[in-house]
């Protein structure tokens, strides 16, 4: 499951400690999946979950939770030792050093309340639940939190990207960065261990055809109608130019590849464009599958690239104390 590093201008814990949270995210996900799978295979509820209390409290209590209830889990020392098969490694961390873990609360709120019949059904249910947690994970820190637009919980493209790609992929989803002190919204930036993908999405009516026939405007054909639209390559090239400049300024040596993406439409572009990959409805599934089988662990240069972007992002957030006061007044 790819890691959502930055979502628009929401606060990101990766801004606080980029060397720590990628590994912690994978560990949390693995622990949760192993426990859920164990419960499903055994046909019994796991007898005890360790519940994390508020930081102000000095004691911990233990309760029994059903898989379909909200639960909070704290990692035990024994579980840490059994994580040798975690899929990623963080080359910025000295593996001999202990990674301090903050107390992290996981809330599962499944939309489908039934017992899965197969391991694949269980996995799908788990990933859908974890997707909601991941949105919370990507928009909060220990002290701060951002208001999340509910549309992201229904965003099928965001869900596809996060659930289809490996843990070693870092996702910037329409991040807002500062260029000469002015806020600029980019599209999707996907950092794999070896390259940076700049992705511009072109999606309107189902089965629409986008004809590239000019430098400034393209034509969208849908049924018997034709309409002009701004050439999406302009936005894509602009994004690539901004990212390229950031990389140069921060001594990041990573190739940048541009992708024009449409899940429900088609591109009709005469000829080819240098360093641009056109992915439409015909290619989308195979494109996902190709990236899904990427097996390389995280790389040092990938982390430097992520840090270079995070240094320029705009953030809008609130102190958690303010958040709690407002909820009490509702």
Folded structure, characterized:
This protein has 330 residues and is of the alpha/beta class. It is 32% helix and 19% strand. A 6-stranded mixed β-sheet has the order 1-5-8-9-13-15, with helices on both faces. β8 and β9 (196-201) form a beta hairpin. The two termini are 35 Å apart.
Class by SSE composition: alpha/beta
Low-confidence stretches: 46-112
Shape: globular
Largest sheet: 6 strands, mixed
Q: Can you write the helix and strand succession as a string?
A: EHHEEHHEHEEEEEEEEHEEEHHEH
- What value does the average pLDDT take? 79
Instruction: Write down the Rg.
Output: 22 Å
Tell me the helix content.
Answer: 25-40%
The side-by-side strand order for the widest beta sheet comes to 1-5-8-9-13-15
Strand content: 15-25%
- Which oligomeric state applies? single chain
Number of strands: 16
Number of helices: 9
Ends distance: 35 Å
Top keywords for this entry?
single chain, 330 residues, four-stranded mixed β-sheet, 16 strands
List the helices and strands and how they pair.
Layout: E1 3-7, H1 13-16, H2 21-42, E2 49-50, E3 62-63, H3 77-81, H4 119-137, E4 144-145, H5 156-164, E5 170-173, E6 176-179, E7 182-185, E8 188-191, E9 196-201, E10 209-211, E11 217-222, E12 225-230, H6 232-249, E13 256-261, E14 266-268, E15 276-279, H7 284-292, H8 300-310, E16 318-319, H9 320-329
Parallel strand pairs: 1-5, 9-13, 10-14, 13-15
Antiparallel strand pairs: 2-3, 4-16, 5-8, 6-7, 8-9, 10-11, 11-12
Helix pairs in contact: 2-4
